[in-house]
Every structure is written in structure tokens, then in C-alpha cells.
Amino acid sequence: MSKLLTAALAAIGVSVAACGSSGSLSGTPSGPTAVPANAITINVVGINGAQSFSPNPATVSADQTVVWHNVDRVTHRVVLNDGELDTGDIAPGASSAAMLLTAPGAYHCSIHPPMVGSIAGDQ
């Protein structure tokens, strides 16, 4: 029984050490993905209906990407109403990945559905 317990503890130790490894030589986490210079940033400002995002509506050209930046104190998740885009959860102070939109449209926070916004195309 003692040998089995020793082997189990050794295996747990190896697993914990492997999980703590960052995989990089410096041991520091990688930084955020670079945002394209022509990206439009839409701030997530709070749970306040059509006033939840700024600017709202946002005007985006066909060649631009959009980044949602959460300036609120709770996590949000922006999705286009047609389901074509989902930012994933955006923690307070964080930004979504830069996303190229194929068409203008309405969006909302899937965590807080009363939060609504829209993107207008720049024709």
C-alpha cells in the first residue's frame, strides 16, 4: 500500500508541475492579440438597454474590423442577432479579438439580453 501511495503522490506532483508550466522560455504569459490600425472599438459600458454600448450605432466600413472593449465591472458576451458573430466572454477591462464583419446588423449581450446595439454599414 505504501508503494502505491508513493507512486500516486509522485504522479500528482508531475501533473501539477506540468500544469504550472507556461510553455514559453521566459515564463511570462503572452500579451493580447494586436488590434489592426483601422479597427473600430465599441465600448461595453453597462447594462442600460440601447445605451449599453458606445458608440451605438457604430458605423463600420467593409474593410474594417470591430473590437468590443469591456469598460463595465461585469463580464459580457456580444453576439450578432443573426448568430454570425460571437465574441466569447469579455472580462472587465478586457477586449474581444478583432473581428471582420461581413454585414451590418443588430447585436446584444447574450448574458444580459436587454443590452442591445447595432452596426451600420458605411456605404
Structure notes:
The chain is 15% helix and 32% strand. With 123 residues, the protein is α+β, with helices and mostly antiparallel strands. It has a domain of 82 residues: Cupredoxins -  blue copper proteins (Immunoglobulin-like, Sandwich), CATH 2.60.40.420. The N terminus is likely disordered.
Poorly predicted runs: 1-31
The CATH topology label of one domain is Immunoglobulin-like
Determine the N-to-C terminus distance: 75 Å
Secondary-structure element string: HEEEEEEEEE
Structure summary, number of beta strands: 9
Write down the CATH class of one domain: Mainly Beta
What count of helical segments does DSSP give?
1
Mean pLDDT: 78
CATH H-level superfamily title of one domain? Cupredoxins -  blue copper proteins
Shape assignment:
globular
Rg, please?
A: 21 Å
Structural class based on helices, strands and sheet pairing: alpha+beta
Strand order of the main beta sheet, please?
A: 3-9-8-5-6
Question: In what range is the share of β-strand residues?
Answer: 25-35%
Q: Helix coverage percent of residues?
A: 10-25%
Provide the CATH architecture of one domain: Sandwich
Largest sheet: 5 strands, mixed
